Amino acid sequence: MKRRALITAAATAGFAAMITRPAIAQEQPALRWRLASSFPKGLDTLWGATQFISKRVADATDGRFRIDAFAAGEIVGGAQVLDAVQSGSVECGHTNSNFYFGKNPAFAFDTCLPFGMNTRQQNAWMVHGGGNELIREVAKKFNIHTMQAGNTGAQMGGWYRKEINTLADLKGLKMRIPGIAGQVMARLGAVPQQIAGGDVYPALERGTIDAAEWVGPVDDEKLGFARIAKYYYYPGWWEGGAQVSFYVNLERWNALPPAYKAILETVCAETNTWMVAKYDAGNGDALRRLVAGGAVLRPFSNEIMEAARKEAFALYGELAQQHEDFGRIYKNWNEFREKIVSWFRIGELPFDYFVQAQAARR
Amino acid sequence: MKRRALITAAATAGFAAMITRPAIAQEQPALRWRLASSFPKGLDTLWGATQFISKRVADATDGRFRIDAFAAGEIVGGAQVLDAVQSGSVECGHTNSNFYFGKNPAFAFDTCLPFGMNTRQQNAWMVHGGGNELIREVAKKFNIHTMQAGNTGAQMGGWYRKEINTLADLKGLKMRIPGIAGQVMARLGAVPQQIAGGDVYPALERGTIDAAEWVGPVDDEKLGFARIAKYYYYPGWWEGGAQVSFYVNLERWNALPPAYKAILETVCAETNTWMVAKYDAGNGDALRRLVAGGAVLRPFSNEIMEAARKEAFALYGELAQQHEDFGRIYKNWNEFREKIVSWFRIGELPFDYFVQAQAARR
Predict the structure, then answer these.
(1) Taking the complete model, does pTM exceed 0.80, yes or no?
(2) Domains of chain A: residue spans and CATH
(3) CA–CA distance from A311 to each of A153, A315, A316 (Å)?
(4) Using the beta-carbon criterion (under 8 Å), do A7 and B9 form an inter-chain contact?
(5) B263: nearest CA in chain A?
(6) In this predicted complex, what is the ipTM?
(7) Which of A228, B11, B52, B324 is paired with A345 by a 20 to 30 Å CA distance?
């Protein structure tokens, strides 16, 4: 290209860029954002959600608002998404808030708590029970606006090298289980380990740990745990529905045109269902393949379930005393939870229970 | 500005410009659509969803795409929404597809079938199991494009003037229960009645009918059934999760700019969760008030549940023989259903069941 042509193009392009701001009320700015994901590309549902969000937002804005997603480790590590969005080094992120339990334990409510709400109950609390407002007050302290943007559904209870029948079997058990769930496990005598995704398999293979929890059949199958720790327990009582969140740097959020805010909100809400629907659609086949490959399914015993529930709520009581944010949100969350669980006991579970019992009998 | 600086600026601006479409392409047409709802304004969750959709779409388009919603009876009756959208007398509608079971029995799959999938399972089938594509082929024959846009969750089993313990108690029972559920009830010896919303209460009060099903606690409370038929049964085995659909006249849909299509799709998907979350958040309190006001909760007996399930699937087998569309979709739906129910039996229900059992014990 000739220099003059380049300069002319420069002037034109510069002008075009300038008038992209509301010269006419109908025009929206061209934006290009970077998104840091907490998930590797191999977890194609968790990672795939960012692709879904990017495409939907681009389509809804005729390509004017683009979001380039980067997997865990490409810009920052999977557990550094909050910091990257807080500082503005990326405009947005896709992550689990309970990764940041150490910064503020109230972040757990934005993902899930052991023996807490399931996916639908969490949605009801967030959208119509005041959850979103409460969580956003916490996120604001970290210069972040947050929205629901995915859920795994109820997770499995992890992979164990030996059977776990009684509380005695948990004593001294070295298990990869992070966050608040790890704290409950510790109260039961286990030794929780914080191990990043890629290191879990070798640690379990070498016997450095005795057990590891991950997600559910679709994602667990990829890591091949069945070969080295065949006992596959359920339910994952610490994650009855783990929400994934979309973080936006607060200044970037506040500066967004109202239409872009509405589009991001609605796309994140759609993604919340898109993700759990994808897990729900895939987990049945994945579980069947896992069992065919040697995984041995085992339910946690009532002894373990009841002791774990007792310790979980004892822990919440302590945290509520120690942390103002946790205490305030816990009160709202727990009241809502008791109410919605009592409704599901009549409205939802008898239907589901009958249908599954019939299916099991055939 | 020095030339080199200008060239550098040119390169930067050029990049910005590349992602900026020509000004003219950014403008979107101003549209004003009329929406016919199947629901009266009193059902503020079902009706409220259309208000939610209108606001979101307007916000996402800076007010350029407006949808004016009209309640049942304002333009057409609640069960005439399909006809109004098909003919183009309104651009779009919000309705239950199973109202049109008489036009094509395959429409039932777009709402729910007795002993079929629950809300989350329906979402998984529609979004990731091929459901949307199959339903749209049917809707296309009626000049309609359809999208998921709400769900009531599992409904209650209705109000009865006397206790219903055995199959013998169903013989000759005159019950307001429409569509495919009514057909199953008829096979059990009941006499299903098709009665529009506003006429149900007087019919039950006068004893013209012995029982009536409606929705769930939030909506049932408004109609005051507890005063005249105090036995409130659960679960509503015919509606384990009743989907609501957004219909668009096919020519209108095809003529929409791609960005508006994306916005309508994502807003309807958000509404799908918004609605069930609102019911889930409100049903607990409504049920408590109903019971305090004299409603007597009763579970359907196993005898009735098992006989109803058997008749339901016998009916599906017959319909699959008689109707090509029903048969084709039933095969896909049933395979998906069996797979996802087997997954929920491990992944979801043991968590939910334990949590609700603990709650019931306290």
Answers:
(1) yes
(2) 15-153+241-281 (3.40.190.170), 158-239+283-321 (3.40.190.10)
(3) 23, 6, 9
(4) no
(5) A60
(6) 0.92
(7) B52
